[in-house]
Design a protein that fits this description.
Low-confidence stretches: 159-170, 275-289, 395-411
Number of helices: 17
Largest sheet: 6 strands, antiparallel
Helix content: 25-40%
Shape: globular
């Protein structure tokens, strides 16, 4: 590829070469029409010798350029110059994640921050039907604040019939390739989850897990060798980190985390469970006492409120049941138009990032918070509810002598009873939905419950009715929230009477002692609004 420095590609004046790889050369340029600096990735002429390459190139880049996300590098333009296809992108001046790793292992708290950003971008692309195929630190650019921007989406697919990287016809970068990428067949988002697992390992350890003298040797290691224990390199890391590595790098796509976001949540949970002083969480993350959660249905009516939210609003513990069914605007003391517009945005976009909001507690005192929300969706991506998180901008001081909002933590025995009740009710709920609506409804209930748990970093999974719980604290809020989500979804599909009948059948079958403990969940109060 000839040096393009000093030449003009349409409205782009090339000023410098800033990178070169086996598949492309990247230049810095000035877009003369807007007087802004851009990056231009130029592919070699040899690719255009293949029949229909340009047609495929334009089709794939059109798809990639439609990805609009805060952590995906914007694509401004694309075209062809002197037989060389090119892509015009936003210019980032701080290098790549690979450059950052080259300076040494990244601190766990910073790793978590970066992983969360990358996971959001990957999950967004996957929802749009786009698989990266070559996710790696070199394809993650950084801005001046070290925020991440994923790039090169779809380039591996664009050149899928070439033999650029390995000379074997296998596309991707061997150090980050999932085992299934060395075999024929369509890829799934699980390949990107695997590559992110490799990246997490490298960020924390300072090196990749598998190395060999040849690309083929690296591929064989991914396919056959056991996953290395990261704590052999970094013994100060918490034990749970290895569990995150093991699942994200599973040889089988089916047993990996279901999404990049789930991987990020598991990493956060593993770090949160560590008591080592060298592993603080990101400083911007609020503690459990300063982050509040409430859930709504599509009408903006509250279906669940947790104890931190009650403390934030200075409401009594027993007021939780009176809040259920109220409009979220009433609960937060804001204009209805504000919450209506917010929930509409959640329904349209799937997620709304942090925005400032002034709410009022039970005494009319104004509290400034950052609120954000994530949509709950069914298997047809229809909006069925919103999970709203409130983070006070300044810590709220609660005088528990004035009112009692402290959660009545249950002892170990009661927590076990609560877990038994939760499992039985959720399994019965799922079974009734499958009987009335088929396996699809059961699978979608799994999805809603798992996404809610992952989003809130609750160690609970549900797969084909099999529920696995690993709660480390005695907190009835978790069971109450997940049952609320499941019941709200089921009522919308099969009706209130059918769901109540199913739950009452379970109540008649469980031990009375368990039932007395489970009454703390106040789940039947939910039916007043549904």
């Amino acid at each position: 590829m000839s040096d393009l420095v000093g030449q003009t590609l349409g409205q782009y004046q090339v000023t410098a070469q800033i990178g070169k790889g086996g598949m492309s050369t990247v230049y810095q340029a000035i877009q003369t029409s807007m007087k802004r600096t851009v990056a231009i990735k130029v592919l070699p002429r040899t690719l255009t010798h293949e029949d229909k390459f340009l047609e495929r190139f334009y089709r794939e880049v059109e798809i990639v350029s439609s990805l609009q996300h805060p952590h995906i590098l914007p694509v401004y333009d694309f075209g062809e110059y002197d037989g060389m296809p090119y892509i015009v992108m936003a210019y980032m001046s701080s290098g790549t994640l690979s450059d950052l790793i080259a300076k040494g292992a990244i601190a766990p708290n910073e790793t978590l921050r970066l992983v969360k950003q990358m996971a959001e971008a990957l999950d967004y692309a996957h929802r749009k039907g786009v698989i990266h195929r070559d996710f790696k630190p070199g394809n993650v650019l950084l801005d001046e604040q070290n925020n991440t921007y994923l790039t090169d989406f779809g380039l591996a697919k664009i050149s899928e019939s070439t033999e650029q990287l390995t000379g074997t016809g296998i596309l991707g970068t061997p150090f980050y390739m999932a085992p299934e990428q060395a075999e024929p067949g369509a890829l799934t988002p699980a390949a990107d989850v695997y590559a992110m697992g490799i990246t997490v390992f490298q960020m924390l350890a300072g090196h990749v897990p598998f190395e060999a003298a040849t690309p083929l040797g690296v591929l064989m290691a991914h396919m056959t060798q056991p996953i290395p224990n990261i704590r052999h390199t970094k013994p100060e890391l918490p034990e749970d980190i290895q569990d995150v590595i093991d699942r994200s790098m599973s040889k089988s796509p089916q047993t990996r985390y279901p999404s990049a976001g789930a991987l990020a949540s598991a990493l956060e949970y593993a770090l949160a469970e560590s008591h080592a002083s060298v592993l603080p969480l990101v400083s911007t993350q609020p503690s459990e006492t300063t982050q509040a959660l409430l859930m709504t249905n599509t009408l903006g009516q509250v279906i669940f409120v947790d104890q931190p939210c009650l403390r934030l609003l200075k409401r009594h513990h027993n007021e939780a049941r009176t809040i259920i069914g109220k409009g979220v605007h009433e609960v937060l003391g804001v204009e209805k138009q504000v919450t209506d517009q917010f929930i509409q945005q959640v329904g349209k976009r799937g997620r709304v990032g942090e925005e400032r909001l002034d709410i009022k507690d039970a005494f009319g005192t104004s509290i400034s918070v950052m609120w954000s929300a994530t949509a709950t969706q069914d298997d047809k991506n229809a909006f069925v509810g919103a999970d709203i998180t409130l983070k006070p901008i300044q810590d709220v001081i609660v005088n528990t002598n004035d009112f009692d909002t402290v959660d009545k933590r249950v002892d170990t025995t009661d927590e076990g009873f609560m877990q038994v009740y939760f499992v039985k009710q959720m399994q019965a709920l799922r079974e009734s939905m499958v009987q009335l609506g088929g396996k699809r409804l059961g699978a979608n209930l799994d999805k809603i419950i798992n996404e809610t748990a992952q989003r809130n970093v609750w160690p609970m999974t549900m797969n084909d009715g099999q529920i696995h719980v690993e709660l480390q604290s005695n907190n009835p809020d978790v069971y109450r929230a997940l049952l609320s989500k499941g019941i709200a979804y089921a009522v919308g599909l099969v009706g209130k009477k059918m769901v109540i009948r199913s739950m009452q059948t379970v109540d008649k079958q469980v031990d009375p002692t368990i039932l007395r403990v489970a009454d703390q969940l106040k789940i039947y109060d939910l039916f007043d609004v549904l």
